[in-house]
Write a structure and sequence with these properties.
Blueprint: H1 14-27, H2 32-37, H3 43-51, H4 59-72, H5 76-88, H6 93-100, H7 108-122, H8 129-137, H9 142-165
Length: 182
């Protein structure tokens, strides 16, 4: 298997170099996964535009989806990154483990969202009608449904990039779900 490197700033085009500079200013570093997108002249910019586009989901809800999807897709990089981001959005370790399992016993509305994200991912887009109905009955709208599906697709892209490239994780590594008490 060919080794895919994490490109350095001088190895990417001018557009990606500017994005690297902005990420460095905003985050203090360029996450390895983002840098890996920069093997393409356009993918990093496209991904960041897609990820930062307006959505009906709040930041905390986006993390629910990111954690559930990344667990189903078994992406250790995204689980590590979104565990850190989930904590920044107010979730504790126990809640994050539960969200990764596709549940949220601590919040019935987030529970419906986590179950939907997990179900869509497991069923490759063919969500069970009962899960969709529970999501809508929990207070989410059809707009939220579409935005959730879009986010599942978005996160799946990153999951697949890491799963294919196996670039090093540069966040504190998330513990395996099976060692948790969930």
């Amino acid at each position: 298997m060919a080794t895919i490197n994490v490109p350095k700033r001088e190895e990417v085009n001018a557009t990606n170099q500017a994005i690297f500079d902005n990420l460095e200013k905003a985050l203090g570093f360029v996450p390895n996964l983002y840098a890996t997108y920069a093997h393409s002249d356009t993918a990093l910019e496209n991904y960041l535009n897609f990820s930062n586009a307006p959505t009906s989901l709040k930041a905390k809800e986006k993390e629910v989806v990111n954690l559930a999807v990344s667990q189903v897709n078994n992406c250790s990089y995204c689980l590590s990154a979104h565990t850190a981001i989930g904590k920044m959005n107010g979730f504790n370790e126990e809640q994050i483990l539960e969200l990764r399992a596709g549940n949220a016993s601590f919040d019935s509305k987030l529970d419906a969202l986590a179950k939907l994200a997990k179900n869509i991912t497991e069923n490759r887009g063919q969500a069970d009608q009962q899960v969709v109905d529970n999501f809508l009955n929990a207070g989410y709208s059809k707009e939220n449904l579409i935005d959730t599906i879009v986010l599942v697709g978005n996160k799946t892209i990153s999951n697949y990039i890491h799963s294919t490239t196996q670039i090093p994780i540069d966040f504190p590594e998330a513990q395996p779900l099976e060692t948790s008490t969930i």
